[in-house]
Amino acid sequence: MKLQTIIPVQPADILLDYHSKSLLLGSCFSENIGHKLDYFKFHTLQNPFGILFHPLAIENLLERAISGKIYGEKEIFEQTEVWSCFDAHSQLNANTSDRILESLNHGLEQITLFLKEATHVFITLGTAWVYQHESRELAVANCHKVPQKEFKKKLLSIEEVVRSLEGILHLLQSVSNGIQVIFTVSPVRHLKDGFVENQRSKAHLISAIHQLPKKDINYFPSYEIMMDELRDYRFYNADMIHPNELAIDYIWNKFKATWISEEVYEVMDKVETVQKGLAHRPFNANSTAHKAFSERLQAKIEYLQGNYPTINFNR
């Protein structure tokens, strides 16, 4: 008896291994996958500007990083003694203007340097709804609790999303013709926009991605897996919106089968053994048994780092 409709996935042409360098940008689901890649010690850079929900924010970030256009005083603002930038998530907020500018420009520098050697870029799109700041005439990445009257809410058309994604592709290809660009649509529903409005938004994103030349992009169906294979609410957190750990693990295994080379599965198992060892909290840290355990664990770390220089358990 079949209790699910399974979405087929096939291994990609250029797979991830421990020589790959992956940049992950976009909505919170990119962080779910990014945390998994980081746990298994793949070489990644994940959302230096924090979560970015829509394509215009991602395009803007890449354009600034690649062109080297740094941030200045006119692009930040202070509210309730906290400094923010409309281009970045609130996790970059700071108590002083100098500190937020340092964080913003450090993030740009990280992306610029990383892209020079990046092999894969994973972009997770969350929504086609944007908030345009009326006086600054820009689509913000985050409203930072600025009064809603200062913004105009707009649903990007399919054509507008396509233009933005084409801009993203052009920027990435200007750095490297061989870079692998993978789009996915976040399975997190933006129900604050409304049920119908969320579906319209996701439809615009999916339609736009599939209008791009197939030779230039890859598509991973995380949204479709969540909506079809994992359509039961037991796969959601208590908010009934975000995928829970079981769902994230399920989609991760699909991702692994699609994007990670089987040749490194054994290395991943060794890394996981070390990670579990590092997480272990002994009853008696001074016992002979624990000292022997620590020595064996250190030997495993040295073996992995000696054979795979990108693996770093201190990062």
Summarize the structure.
The protein is of the alpha/beta class. The chain is 43% helix and 14% strand.
Which tags fit this structure?
315 residues, alpha/beta, 3-stranded antiparallel sheet, 43% helix
Give the termini distance in whole angstroms. Answer: 46 Å
Helix content: 40-55%
Kindly report the average pLDDT value. Answer: 95
Largest sheet: 5 strands, parallel
Strand order of the largest sheet: 2-1-5-9-10
Q: Order of helices and strands, N to C?
A: EHEHEEHEEEEHEHEHHHH
Number of strands: 10
| Rg from Cα | 21 Å
Q: Based on Cα principal axes, name the global outline.
A: globular
Beta-strand residue percentage:
5-15%
Number of helices: 9
In terms of structural class, how would the helical and strand content be classed? alpha/beta
As residue ranges, the low-confidence spans are none
What does this structure look like?
It is a single chain. This protein is an alpha/beta fold. The chain is 43% helix and 14% strand. The chain is built from nine helices and ten strands. A five-stranded parallel β-sheet has the order 2-1-5-9-10, sandwiched between helices. A three-stranded antiparallel β-sheet has the order 7-6-8, with no helix packed on it. α1 links the parallel β1 and β2. α2 crosses α3, α4 packs across α5 and α8 packs antiparallel against α9. The protein is globular.
